[in-house]
Write the structure tokens for this entry.
Amino acid sequence: MSQRGWDLLLFYGDGWRKDLFRCLVNVSFAGPQAVAILSRNGEVRAIVTDAWDLEPVAAAIDGKVALSLRLVDGLRALLTAERGAVVAINGLEQMEARFAQAVREGSRAALVSATADVEEIRRVKTPAEIEWIRTAADLADRGYEHFVRVCEPGMTEFELVAEVESYIKSNGAEDNFMLVASGGTEVTGMKPPTARRLQPGDSVTTELTPQINGYYAQICRTLVIGEPNAAQREAYGIFSAAQQAAQDFLRPGVDISDVARVQNDVFRSRGYGDYTGPKYTRVRGHNLGLYPDELPHVLENVHYLCKKDMVLIAHPNTYLPLSGYMVFGDTLLITDSGCVSLSKTEKKLFQA
Amino acid sequence: MKRGLIGWDPAELPRAALEARLAELHRHIADIGVQALVAFGDVWRSNDVRYISNYMPYWNRAFTVVSPGEAPILLCALSPRVYPWIRSVTLHETIVPSPNLVAQLGKLCTERGWTRIGVLDHAGLPYDLHEQLAAEKLEVVDVPREGVRPTASESELGMHRRSAKLARAALEAELANGAVGLTDRQVTGRLERALRRAGAEDLFVLISNGRTPPVPAGGQVFGRQSSVTVTLEYNGHWARVSRNAAGLTSPLPPTQGETVHLQTLSRAGGWEGIEQTEVAPGTVVSLQVEIGRNGSRLYYGDTCVQGRGTVEVL
């Protein structure tokens, strides 16, 4: 902050992007927004917009917490007291314009986004953060085991999600990011669950992403209802090889674009290179942490040199005409010389 | 993300009800002299776009664009691979892939010859979109939400009522069936199962152990002084209900001076704090009461609609 000339650094979170607040004050706030305020001298304060957040946030920061049902009023009061401080905001892009305007009016300089700076700090995890992600990865493993156990023909997608959510929450997750899909070659992607009933022969795909103490880990696996056919097995072989290529390649200093490339090269070598682009897939993985889809994304046109203690998932999830949409991925921790998978679930095409 | 059942049951929300909303929006567009109305939505601020077209931004950001003479247009950053499903549960026929929402909106305006557009709650846009929009060659008119959605319609009240009924039924069944003695995480898990199987689209469970306000489960034993608050979204309509293991109730609103936690469920996001003096008739609110009893804090509350000097539990 001193180098950049910032007097105050605000961490703005809302009901979707709580991580932007939690990276300074690790409380899952209940209100629509919350702002943590870091002063250059290290003092931490907060403004919350829900009375139920006062006590947990105060306990977490051992400092002053103000309740303001309308955040704009709380920000004005803060900036009036600070008399024209230079302010940077983590999460400025997500902040409602009326809140940003209130900050700008009380600051003696133009608004500055600190999001990219904070993201860079967040990318490399501390030992404590790695332990939380390890615990989340363990729960993802157990959650997927439960997924396989309860999945059966006749069940709707949303009933399956309900069972898995129940298991994951009962076992300590505070949240979960989860997409599913079921069916055959007509399935082109995952989405929230529908009322479609699972049928013999279906591929059932999921990204399961439990959150422990704020931190997400993810596992992606595909399951077939009944005996997989030859095409499903062939497709699985491609996904498995692509994920393994990424896992074998990932280490400090490699460009994230090459982590995508080694996965896509497996598809290219099998004649499916057309299915590695945006028409059929989104990303070949992404960083993990307090948000389930952190940057950098693993894409051939994204360049970022990987660092030790980053945690990311490599998942070559895409559509293939062999099988429809298929998924496969593990949470990977970058070590001194390579990476280790925090996911312990067997690497195979599951059956139910 | 929202990961419950997102659907469209015409028996619950008839197409005619959505079309009537659109017709009203078209009249409003004419009244304020703009060529199109733009509403923003994301995972948290999903209510406006859901109201207009039944689109639920389960992930990412979106604009719904309404203009007389054509079906509402969806600009969203989700992959075209999910558009067939989106079309099946919304009014949208035209969905435009929009990794850059404002750039795509600008392109759409150019194609249609629109130079003056209304933005629903313009100052509520995320800062990056707001700034980017300011740089477009467009005249942007702020359209207050109150002018577009002044009060909840009968169909909306019906959906909030359904949502509250689901929450009450699950909570009361859970408390009657051995919740005491379980961990708060187990109670949360059981409610997740019951409510997501019943069709909840989104769900938040908070638990008080009698010494704290309602907070996310932390692994404590659910005791006789504990309370549960369920916040549930069913087909785009929110409800919040609190019950306690001791079975204490309270009039709503309370008459004994207890602490009241009042929030509106009628704005862009799921819930938002509001002062009693700001609650207009027809507003759907969450009214949760903290009941002091023998040194403990117990919670009881429900989802209500504000009348003229009265409150009706939905």
